[in-house]
Amino acid sequence: MNPQLPSLLEHLEKEQLQSLISPSLLHILAHYAQKYPRYLLKVHKYYDEIYFALSYLVEQFFLKKWNATMVEHLLNWERKYVGWKLQSAGINRNKTYITCNLNNTDKKQKLLTLTLFPYLIRKLDDCIASLSKRLTTPGLSFPKARLYGCIIKLYRKLKSCWNILTWVIRILYMCGKTQYTNVIDLILHQKVIYAQRTDSSNTRNDAPISASTKLRDFILENGFTAFILALRLLNWWNENDYQKYFSVSKTWFTNLGPPRTTMASDYHTGTSCRICGSIIQNPAVLTTGFVFCYPCIQGWVSENQCCPVTRVPLLNPETSFWRLML
Ligand SMILES: [Zn+2]
């Protein structure tokens, strides 16, 4: 095994870390979008596009400055181009195998595959999910159903082929037969090695660096660590009941029990409740927009944590429905 190359285990860890970023950000955004829907619902709707743009900018910075992606740089790795190059020595032209730094084209290719590729996969996944949903709707014509079925099958086959290929490359990497750990790096002829960094204080002496550049570099280089820390903190905060001590005044309204049904001011909406089937008594509206009897939905969310009609999971079941004042 080449001592310069990180182990397969390190690569798997890196991929796991990389794959955690987007869902973690989405989780945080969903949490706050529920609290401030007016401002954040639009951001939530275009999350994929926003994430693509943000990751493009961040990764562009890291590739340009450090020859590595953000996570690779944090692990102290760098990228090298591996390939054959024509070298002319007198009359003879020799092809030599070289390892060199990435040039601008290599960086652009890596940047696009790193950011655009996952974005397209997410969009394709969404399309396939909506196609399979359409397949189950009644009244779909036979040729259409056949076409949808074929597309879904083909997509799944392509995906599993890609995964098998990735695993073959990983096993070859583990055995020392290749320098690449995934299909894209194999196509781009890029490998990852431990970075041999010189002390940054020595190399930066030649040109004075402005305070704003220093601040930008500091934020970009420590941002991810701060993000992971904030995520852990948020997780711990939500797992414990600390927030209840601070937000008592906000939740008193939803904690009110249903009004007594024997009173003269009792009212109903005239339509039937989808949980109990009878006419809605003391209506309560769920965040998904559906109205049920208060006791019915209270009992339902405490057991199921999702909307009874749409099956959309509820992030915070206890505060996801309100009494409806007609
Ligand atoms: Zn009911």
Automatic annotation (TrEMBL):
GO CC annotations, alphabetized: peroxisomal importomer complex; peroxisomal membrane
Lipid bilayer topology: Multi-pass membrane protein
Domain RING-type, residue spans: 273-311
Location(s) in or outside the cell: Peroxisome membrane
Listed InterPro entries: PEX12 (IPR017375), Pex_N (IPR006845), Znf_C3HC4_RING-type (IPR018957), Znf_RING (IPR001841), Znf_RING/FYVE/PHD (IPR013083)
Primary localization: membrane
Alphabetic keyword roster: Ligase, Membrane, Metal-binding, Peroxisome, Protein transport, Transmembrane, Transmembrane helix, Transport, Zinc, Zinc-finger
Pfam families linked: Pex2_Pex12 (PF04757), zf-C3HC4 (PF00097)
GO annotation, biological process: protein import into peroxisome matrix; protein import into peroxisome matrix, receptor recycling; protein monoubiquitination
Membrane-spanning intervals of the chain: none
Pathway: Protein modification; protein ubiquitination
GO molecular function: ligase activity; ubiquitin-protein transferase activity; zinc ion binding
Family named by the database record: Belongs to the pex2/pex10/pex12 family.
Subunit field text: Component of the PEX2-PEX10-PEX12 retrotranslocation channel, composed of PEX2, PEX10 and PEX12.
Protein name, entry field: Peroxisome assembly protein 12
Organism encoding this protein: Schizosaccharomyces japonicus (strain yFS275 / FY16936) (Fission yeast)
Lineage, opening ranks: Eukaryota, Fungi, Dikarya, Ascomycota, Taphrinomycotina
Primary gene name: pex12
